[in-house]
Design brief:
The protein has 16 helices and nine strands. The protein has 374 residues and is α/β, with parallel strands linked by helices.
Length: 374
């Protein structure tokens, strides 16, 4: 199936990496780490590991618009698998975007090259909340569910597949602001001026996110990540009042599924305890918080994910190695660490540096936790 897509688009696939099916050790490694069990080597996957830094992704992108790729299951599956052909990553993450589920609420979404996503009919008044068309179906994500099914079939018994969703707060930021970037002042002003309408909207989004995550589990996702990309804009007090209950509600929808939940936000050094209170088996860290300090704050009962600065992948090999080893030393070989970046792979990243990082993490950490017994 995937090979047919590649041939149709004329993309020469690299033959320098492992087979997609991989060894089953890759699957057990990540899932064991999520459960804070010993592993044979530290697992590693990278946010935005499938994307613009890969030549084969750019070749597809020349022929297809971004939303077309997201909404065509075969293309989304192909992009999901591309990095696993090159690198011995311990997980695949489904190629998707956080915003299409908003379309099931009546929001009109467009992506423009260079300017990113646009919501053409942003929510700006309290009355707009009551007017939302809340679909209980999967019109905003059926294509992603099919991509998950296809990717699971292609992955076989190899690396586990991660599904994801934007968190209610981050989705609200885009839905109210109308575009991305900046400090989302329009969205946060709405939060402050219209608290009742804000909570009503967040209730809608929490139910939406919960259904979406549960549907991904049913389709075959083996790990889930909740991206609260913009939560770091908030004070702890505002997070507790306006965000925490809704993130908790969204995660509660899948807490009994048996699938590990990763809860991630950028700029979240002041929010870690509150994020943990909101839910998640794994707390994702960006590079602006020390991993050992986060362990002291949250305790031994949670797995930590992170937290190399993405710019490190643009550095010379010696600097890359030193900084990656510093993260591993901070983790100190304790069970319950997943190596990742503190945010996504930057488009200008060299694939060679990604390979260096993946190999280094595995080689340096072999045996650091006493091995795994299953």
């Amino acid at each position: 199936m995937t090979a047919d897509i590649v041939a149709a688009d004329g993309i020469a696939q690299p033959d320098t990496g492992p087979a997609v099916a991989g060894a089953e050790a890759a699957q057990s490694r990540l899932l064991r780490a999520c459960r804070r069990e010993p592993v044979d080597a530290t697992p590693i996957w990278l946010m935005r590991q499938a994307g613009r830094y890969l030549p084969e992704y750019r070749a597809l992108r020349e022929r297809h618009a971004f939303l077309e790729m997201v909404k065509t299951p075969e293309l989304a599956c192909e992009v999901t698998l591309q990095p696993l052909r090159r690198f011995e990553l311990d997980a695949a993450i489904i190629f998707a975007d956080i915003l299409p589920p908003l379309e099931s609420l009546g929001f009109e979404l467009e992506f423009h090259e260079g300017s990113g996503p646009l919501i053409l009919n942003p929510l700006r008044r309290a009355a707009d909340v009551a007017a939302l068309s809340a679909s209980e179906g999967d019109e905003g994500w059926s294509f992603t569910l099919q991509a998950i099914r296809l990717a699971r079939r292609e992955l076989g018994g190899g690396a586990p597949l991660i599904g994801f969703s934007g968190a209610p707060f981050t989705l609200a930021c885009y839905a109210i602001q109308g575009s991305g970037g900046g400090d989302f002042a329009v969205a946060r002003r709405f939060m402050m001026n219209e608290p009742r309408a804000w909570h009503a909207f967040m209730d809608v989004l929490a139910r939406l996110v919960g259904r979406y995550l549960a549907a991904q589990v049913a389709a075959g996702a083996q790990v889930l990540q909740l991206f609260d990309s913009w939560a770091g804009l908030l004070s702890p007090a505002d997070y507790r009042e306006f965000v925490l209950p809704h993130s908790r509600a969204a995660l509660a929808a899948v807490e009994g599924s048996g699938v590990p939940l990763i809860h991630f936000a950028t700029g979240s050094a002041g929010l870690l305890e509150l994020m943990y209170e909101a839910g998640g088996d794994v707390i994702g860290l960006d590079w602006r918080v020390d991993l050992e300090a986060a362990r002291r704050r949250l305790g031994e009962g949670v797995c930590l994910q992170g937290n190399l600065d993405p710019v490190t992948l643009l550095a010379e090999p010696k600097a890359l190695e030193a900084r990656a080893v510093a993260v591993l030393k901070s983790a100190a070989g304790r069970p319950g660490h997943i190596f990742n970046l503190g945010h996504g792979v930057l488009p200008q990243t060299s694939p060679d540096n990604v390979r260096r990082l993946v190999d280094l993490v595995h080689e340096w950490s072999v045996g650091s936790q006493g091995g795994a017994d299953g």
